[in-house]
Amino acid sequence: MKLRRSDYAILGLLRLGPGSGYDIKQRIDRSVAFFWNESYGQIYPRLKALEAEGLVKGRETPSARGGVRHVYSLTRRGAKALDAWIEEPVVPAPPRSELLLKLFIAGEPSLPALERHLVAHARDLRAELQQHAATHTLISDTEPGDVAWTLRRLTLDFGERTARAELAWAEHALEALGELT
Amino acid sequence: MKLRRSDYAILGLLRLGPGSGYDIKQRIDRSVAFFWNESYGQIYPRLKALEAEGLVKGRETPSARGGVRHVYSLTRRGAKALDAWIEEPVVPAPPRSELLLKLFIAGEPSLPALERHLVAHARDLRAELQQHAATHTLISDTEPGDVAWTLRRLTLDFGERTARAELAWAEHALEALGELT
DNA sequence: ATTTGCATGTAAAATGTTACATGATTGC
DNA sequence: GCAATCATGTAACATTTTACATGCAAAT
């Protein structure tokens, strides 16, 4: 079976420690959501497929509240597959920004709408920056300074730098639109 | 028929003037490729669908070299649909950066690979910045200063600002990796 | 002769999201 | 009682890329 990017994302998040499909989704939403996302509809079927391939192994544990939890952990083969993928060249995703597309194809009558979109975008970016700042202080407390810590810190830096650049652009764009009267 | 994002991209590029599927692809590659992309496998079938809906109308013209060109132009209804879409709130695409994912899930043994990826990424960004600079001087010559010009100029600004921020980050990340020895 | 650019299109495969379905427990 | 969180999963739908197929003309 050829693995997809989602599979590697799942394997990678399991390297942080064993977890259920639900846990994986939580980890995504709490730490990598600003550059990676997966839905349940992707996670659950893929965990089964990965188990069939022997890249993860699952075991059933009773959950704190009655139900059954399927907790998966990375196997040695899974870790190997993951490391091999990391070695491979990065495949760049074709970019798609709906906001920029609208800017590009709009005419005069659409200016008020564009202004609304830019204001909303700036708002979202400020929220993202606040979130990043919160994460920043959170991880600064437990600063181990090891490799994994440095790498995750770098992804956060990316989020902060690009969000700041985008925010500055959005503000610049709003000014420019204002000058068109 | 519910229109998809690709449809609006096609309609938008036809607003620049009538053109064939081939022309549309050229326009994309030459001006919006850094924030939007479509493949032929998308463009040709969609043009037919859009014509069936009366949003574009096609006519066959002989091409300079023998064959037949299908040249499409925007209809009044097509322009209306396009403007209505621009009014709607922007739907943010869930981000996916393979590079950052690899950073996040990598361990010590992957550091040389990460360095390679970052170097390649920095190279790509420098090429993109050069391309932007070239476009910049190109459009500065014919500076009409009207609305459409300002808006396209803003998308270019976005490309330049974010590419610069990403490049600065990549260089920072390479330094940080170097310090891990 | 062969590569490059112009030009159009289809079919299959890959990939992914959304909606639906179900059910327990905890805190308000 | 009700909302939120925990927890798992399927099916349908939507979307898109890739590979394939074809052919002419101009330039090298």
Q: Let me know the average pLDDT of chain A.
A: 94
Judged by helices, strands and strand pairing, the structural class of chain A is mainly alpha
- Strand tally of chain A is 2
Cα separation of the termini of chain A: 58 Å
Helix content of chain A: 55-70%
Strand line-up across the major sheet of chain A: 1-2
Number of helices of chain A: 7
Q: Major β-sheet of chain A, in short?
A: 2 strands, antiparallel
Fraction in beta strands of chain A: 5-15%
Describe the global form of chain A.
elongated
How many discrete domains of chain A? 2
Q: Tell me the radius of gyration of chain A.
A: 21 Å
Contiguous uncertain segments of 5+ residues of chain A: none
- Name given to the CATH architecture of the largest domain in chain A: Orthogonal Bundle
From the 3D structure, determine the CATH topology of the largest domain in chain A.
Answer: Arc Repressor Mutant, subunit A
Q: Quaternary status of these chains? A: homodimer
Query: What is the H/E order of chain A?
Result: HHHEEHHHH
What is the CATH C level class of the largest domain in chain A, in words?
Mainly Alpha
* Protein chains sharing the most extensive interface: A-B, 69 and 69 residues
